Amino acid sequence: MNEELDSQLSAMFDDELAPEECELLARRLSRDEQLKSRWGRYAVIGAAIRSERGVSLNPPLAGRVSAVILAEPALSGSATAHGARRGGMRWWQPVAGAAMAAGVAAVSILWLRTQGPLSGATLSAQLTPPTAVPTGVEASAPGAPASYVVPRSPAVRAVLVPSTTLANYVVAHSMVSSPVARRNLLSSLMTSESTNVASEAIRAAEDPHDVQSNLP
Amino acid sequence: MGADASDLSLVRRVQRGDKGAFDALVLKYQHKLVKLVMRYVRNPAEAEDIAQEAFIKAYRALPQFRGDSAFYTWLYRIAINTAKNAVVSRDRSPIEYELDRGNEESYDMQSRMKDAETPEGLVLTDEIRSTVNAAIDALPEDLRTAIVLRELEGLSYEEIAAAMSCPVGTVRSRIFRAREAIDRRLREVFEGGLGRAEEIG
Is A63 exposed, middle or buried (0-12, 13-18, 19+ CB in 10 A)? Predict the structure, then answer.
């Protein structure tokens, strides 16, 4: 037993040892029976100085508690279970998450719909009828095989980003909402915007030069 | 130094599954806890039983201990509640009372056997106390003052350093040397009866 170690033990007993040193010594104390015995005698000395009753060098209490604790499961498992319980989801958490996601989606859609011209153009980019497209392709490349090309105009491209954002919100909403709520959301979007979509599609079909002039 | 750092380091070890660290906490606080419980029950054997129950409750509740308060404060509350419950349950337990009354002789025998303050126990306690006191008297004055201020008055090393006009490191060294001298004397007198703590754990 070295003196420095015993000196540290004495200081630790008095709560006067630096925390990092306590960590190291606690590890040793829990395993070294001689050190533990000395630690126990420091407690006896203190109790004797304070003239406490029933002071014994070998109090049966510590042995009895130790015997009971030995039969108990180690606490690391309990601590893990406690952590898992804290990390696990409670019954209301999915519901709250779904409600929050639905709220965010609804607010986002309302916001997007209040953005004026963007709203109609957004849907026109997605729903432009294919009849308008081959005209543009034929005009640019005569003799080329007819292919299905979506005309790209700066006006349309500019509104693709909000369209994607909107789609993302709808997808996010659909992941947590019920099928009925999902259908309601989509059908309300479709019906409210159908007038704008139709007019955009008709305009594009009637004026191919307008589409062509918008190609990059 | 970090207040309660030593207890906290032991507590953290227990929380990680090291049961040996809990022995150290029991060894440190068993006398204090029995003394505390003795405020509620007069029978020392009963006080020991309650203290034992309190320690076991504390062990089981340790995963919930976050270190917001000092470990002893937390343990103290558990012991007080356990003692209060024990007193209430004893006072409201007619069956136990009847049994006690019906088996007075057996109860007395059990009680005597469990009683820590048997004549032999009291003699041992007195012997320990007188040995410790004799060892303290034999100490150089600076060591004696340091250990008494620490153990009897409960002063911190810093407060003792201020009282004795010396550095904190000197106080630490003096208290350690005083303990070593007393411990050596105890082991000389009670050689053979001091190894029990080594069986724990």
Answer: middle
pLDDT digits (tens, 9 = 90+) for A50-61: 887 666 666 678
CB-side exposure of B155: number of CA atoms within 13 Å? 19
Is A86 an interface residue toward B (CB < 8 Å)?
A: no
Residue B97 tokens read as: 């009372």
A55 interfaces chain B, CB cutoff of 8 Å: yes
Cα–Cα distance for residue pair A182/A173, rounded to 1 Å: 7
Helix (H, G, I), strand (E, B) or coil at B150: helix
Residue pair B25/A38 in contact (Cβ under 8 Å)? The answer is: no
> How many beta-carbon contacts under 8 Å exist across A and B?
239
Coil, helix or strand for B145? Answer: helix
Q: What does the pLDDT look like over B175-187, one tens digit per residue?
A: 999 999 999 998 8
Q: Give the one of A19, A48, A61 whose C-beta lies nearest to B128's C-beta.
A: A48
Q: Closest-CA residue in chain B for A52?
A: B35
- Residue to mutate among A17, A61, A82, with most B CBs inside 10 A, is A61
To the nearest 10°, the Cα dihedral for B47, B53, B59, B61? -110
Predicted-complex ipTM score: 0.81
| A49 with B152: Cβ contact below 8 A | yes
